[in-house]
Amino acid sequence: MTIPQDPKPCIDLHCHTTASDGALDPEQLVARAAERGVSHLAITDHDTIDGLARARAASAVLGLELINGVELSCVWRSHTIHVVGLDFDHANGDFLEALARQNDNRWQRARLIADKLHKLKVDNLLERATAMAGGDVPGRPHFAQVLVEAEVVPKVAHAFKRLLGAGKPGDVKACWPELDEVVQWINAAGGIAVLAHPRKYRMTATRLRDLTADFRRAGGRAIEVSVSGQSSGDLGFVAELARREQLLASQGSDFHFPGAPWCELGKIVKMPEGLEPVWHHFRQPVGV
Ligand code: AMP
Ligand code: ZN
Ligand code: FE
Ligand code: FE
């Protein structure tokens, strides 16, 4: 069955499935996106494209355009940074090797997180976090869920605030490649590197300008301007960064699970004027 679409494209280029730390599996995610009127969707799981084949099949049935996507973890000057890759060749051998190394990095990090949190005396923390991740490598949200279950903290947000967030004992950065390197992986696979959710790094304006300039020098081509839960001040600030560095503008919900009304598939704040949309530069351009 094909769901009729609004002729105006509804574009969401950032979201997660159970292939990383999302709550919906690829079929459920695509179905929800279709229900919400999304016409063009990029699934951007953390450091993996394992959900894409199933999502592609589901998208074909529901008449949605699926753009290849991934969200890569890296470091820049001791900050953990997320770079979204869009519209790359998902069969590129070097890219697949890089993703396999990222998966090893994630396992190494998961073991380090479990070691660092051993003082909490949660039995089988790594095993339980792995089970929470469906047997795949656990991310910080999976550890957070186990810590809630074990009544170490009342809520996931507390787990990040006390134990897993930036600068806390369970925040391990040592495992990630440099920003330049992940940008090069994406470019070499024919994709577009997008600096994800710039305001989430809690950097000063000066530092964020430095990051954006370095990202651009490394070969990054786009920046997420419209992101869920962002103030209008932040939207304007990031739009200005995009203009200043002549970066293409991207948008996405960063949807992880249903039930958070401020973060829903296809719910995107209108992009400020004067920016060049990243989707005009896909191999099959959208809306031009
Ligand atoms: P990881 O890639 O394992 O480091 O996990 C990153 C993910 O953790 C993000 O995509 C969010 O889903 C989640 N996350 C990061 N910070 C917080 C926070 N303060 N509260 C809740 N979830 C968070
Ligand atoms: Zn996530
Ligand atoms: Fe992210
Ligand atoms: Fe994300």
TrEMBL record:
**CDD domains the record matches:** PHP_HisPPase_AMP (cd07438)
Annotated Polymerase/histidinol phosphatase N-terminal domain ranges read 11-76
Q: Which GO terms describe its molecular function?
A: 5'-3' DNA exonuclease activity; 5'-3' RNA exonuclease activity
Q: Which Pfam families match?
A: PHP (PF02811)
Superkingdom, taxonomy of origin? Bacteria
Which InterPro entries does the protein's record reference?
Answer: PHP_dom, PHP_domain, Pol/His_phosphatase_N, Pol/histidinol_Pase-like
Where is the signal peptide, in residue numbers?
A: none
Protein's name in the database: Putative metal-dependent phosphoesterases (PHP family)
The species this protein was found in? Marinobacter excellens HL-55
